[in-house]
């Protein structure tokens, strides 16, 4: 065969090879695009009526989300508000009676709320108060059984409250305490094998409470734990950095649950405030990234959730204090116009 024919066949082969590679790469990109698709839609809800803030306490009873105290960039606060999920409006309640503060905790027992700890700008605090929701009134209860602290976590069963971790002004903590409402007392619990931390997050699914994130000695913590409220036993789960594709480590995040899935959202991932959301499946002990929060990056936000609905509001983005509020629909496709 002459040189001309050899060149012709060679060029045809080269063109065919390049074309085939193009379609392989195109198919790969399409597959990657499919893999990158995430579900989750955030819908704007009523903006908070009061002063924008971060570091507020929050709790939920039924379709009502309660929030109070916090820091607005200048002052610690003592006002308290309720958000009506059905009516989509806010209303102000009786002020918190203690020293104005940020980084407090809250839990509920039998339609009463219990709020305490925190930071007043100078000192960590150990006082606690009971809020009678029906009467919209406050009274003091026994101070916390452990050291005064801020940045702790709190949760509750149907009969008891639980408070632990945090920072006491000298050290990060890992102790946990149970509150006994019948005799207004605190009992220290043992069995938590996790690391010390402050500014962690929790979420509840059924009788289990899941605890993770938080920071200690400048490092965001990797360990992840489940607490069974019937047995009061802690058990370790897969670390939050178990998969190289996970970017869950953070502090000052919020936790919430919808149905049988849990979520960690926003917070400081080590490079400033974030908007990313991660979904946890207890049946597999695995995480999946969801659509990012549509508002500004933030830390120190609050979450209201009742098992069926979840809202994320407020927080701080740098020196900007926020008052927006959005509801999350984890299985919807993103719609930036709603």
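Sequence proposed for the structure above (338 residues):
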């Amino acid at each position: 065969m002459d040189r001309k024919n050899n060149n012709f066949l060679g060029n045809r082969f080269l063109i065919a090879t390049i074309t085939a590679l193009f379609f392989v790469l195109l198919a790969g990109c399409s597959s990657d695009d499919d893999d990158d698709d995430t579900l989750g839609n955030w819908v704007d809800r009523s903006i908070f009526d009061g002063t924008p803030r971060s570091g507020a306490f929050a709790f939920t009873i039924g379709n009502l989300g309660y929030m109070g105290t916090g820091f607005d960039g200048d002052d610690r606060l003592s006002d308290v508000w309720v958000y009506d999920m059905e009516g989509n409006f806010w209303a102000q309640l009786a002020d918190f009676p203690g020293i104005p503060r940020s980084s407090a905790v809250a839990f509920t027992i039998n339609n009463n709320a219990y709020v305490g700890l925190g930071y007043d700008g100078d000192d960590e605090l150990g006082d606690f108060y009971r809020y009678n929701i029906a009467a919209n009134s406050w009274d003091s209860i026994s101070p916390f059984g452990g050291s005064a602290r801020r940045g702790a976590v709190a949760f509750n069963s149907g009969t008891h409250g639980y408070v632990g971790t945090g920072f006491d002004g000298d050290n990060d903590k890992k102790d946990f305490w149970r509150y006994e409402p019948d005799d207004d007392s605190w009992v220290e619990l043992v069995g938590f094998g996790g690391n010390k931390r402050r500014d962690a997050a929790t979420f509840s699914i059924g009788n289990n409470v899941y605890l993770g994130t938080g920071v200690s000695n400048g490092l965001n913590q990797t360990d992840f734990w489940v607490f069974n409220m019937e047995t009061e036993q802690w058990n370790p789960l897969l670390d939050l950095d178990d998969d190289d594709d996970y970017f869950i480590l953070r502090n000052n995040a919020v936790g919430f649950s919808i149905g049988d899935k849990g979520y960690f959202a926003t917070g400081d991932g080590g490079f400033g405030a974030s908007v990313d959301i991660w979904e946890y499946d207890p049946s597999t002990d695995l995480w999946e990234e969801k659509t990012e929060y549509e508002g500004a990056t933030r830390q120190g936000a609050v979450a209201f959730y009742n098992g069926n609905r979840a809202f994320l509001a407020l927080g701080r983005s740098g020196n900007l204090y926020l008052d927006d509020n959005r509801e999350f629909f984890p299985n919807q496709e993103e719609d930036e116009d709603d």
